[in-house]
Amino acid sequence: MTDLGLVAWPPAPIRTERLVLRQSEARDRAGFVALFASPEVGTYVGGARSREEVEDTMPEVPGRRPGVFVIDLDGQMIGMVTLDPRAAERRGHIRPDGGETELGYLILPEAWGRGYAVEACAAALDWFAGAVPGAPVVLSTQTANERSMRVAEKLGFTEVDRFEEYGAEQWFGVWPSGPASA
Ligand SMILES: CC(C)(COP(=O)(O)OP(=O)(O)OC[C@H]1O[C@@H](n2cnc3c(N)ncnc32)[C@H](O)[C@@H]1OP(=O)(O)O)[C@@H](O)C(=O)NCCC(=O)NCCS
User: Fold this and answer.
1) Which of 24, 70, 118, 119 counts the most CB atoms within 10 A of its CB?
2) Given CA atoms 106, 107, 113, 114 in this order, what sign does their dihedral have?
3) Nearest Cα to 73, choosing from 124, 17, 32, 30?
4) What burial letters (b/e) apply to 133-170, b meaning 16+ CB within 10 Å?
5) Is 88 a domain residue?
6) How far is the CA of 25 from the centre of ligand 1 (A)?
7) What is the pLDDT of residue 179?
């Protein structure tokens, strides 16, 4: 069982100064399609798929699984924050048996540059730390993904390793730093 497997899901919506983190709903479908069909969003995370392909394969209510938060700004989806188990076959682990909880974040390009990613991720991490005290969260991102690297730094992740994966250099970090994650 992963750390997230110990948590009742979904939690009550999480409110920040400007955002709400909540479970996905059918009305978010267009936002999910826009997110996964965006070339800018896909640049460092596997590339964009065609809008047609994304439309055809997107479930009626996308993202309905534990660990997926829709980022809602004034009632509109602007992105998502994920807390998922890190697959054992991936490179980058802090536990010998893997299964660490990994943070991910995707924001629609029109909402970049306003601090929403850090605000949303900080709230998700805060919630997770309360739900599973002492459990570390890991994160990997391409070193070339400068915006993402800045988000990781602002959230307080510290570097554990760098390695090649998917044909690019990856930065692998842990939160919080210190004895709980050692
Ligand atoms: C990674 C990603 C989420 C970062 O988005 P972002 O908008 O750059 O990050 P933030 O929301 O934290 O915004 C930070 C910027 O907002 C600015 N900002 C403006 N108003 C702000 C406010 N009120 N509060 C905080 N920051 C604010 C900051 O100065 C900062 O600018 P800078 O990066 O030029 O220094 C986004 O680029 C993205 O979705 N990329 C595609 C998906 C991806 O690669 N995800 C990473 C996978 S691991």
Assistant:
1) 70
2) negative
3) 17
4) eebbbbbbbbeebeebbebbeebebeebeeeeeeeeeb
5) yes
6) 24
7) 55
Q: Is 42:48 a contact under the CB 8 Å cutoff?
A: yes
Indicate if ligand 1 lies below 6 Å from the C-beta of 41. yes
| Tokens (6 digits) for 44 | 């460092």
pLDDT per residue of the chain (182 residues) written in tens, 0 to 9: 567 877 899 999 999 999 999 999 999 999 999 999 999 999 999 887 899 999 999 999 999 999 999 999 999 999 999 999 998 889 999 988 888 999 999 999 999 999 999 999 999 999 999 999 989 999 999 999 999 999 999 999 999 999 999 899 999 999 986 655 44
First to last CA, the chain: 20
Please tell me the total count of domains within the chain.
1
Mutate to test the pocket of ligand 1, among 41, 148, 155, 166 (most ligand atoms within 8 A of CB): 148
Give me the domain span that covers residue 84: 4-134
Distance 17 CA to ligand 1 centre (A): 16
Q: Which residue has the tokens 């948590």?
A: 7
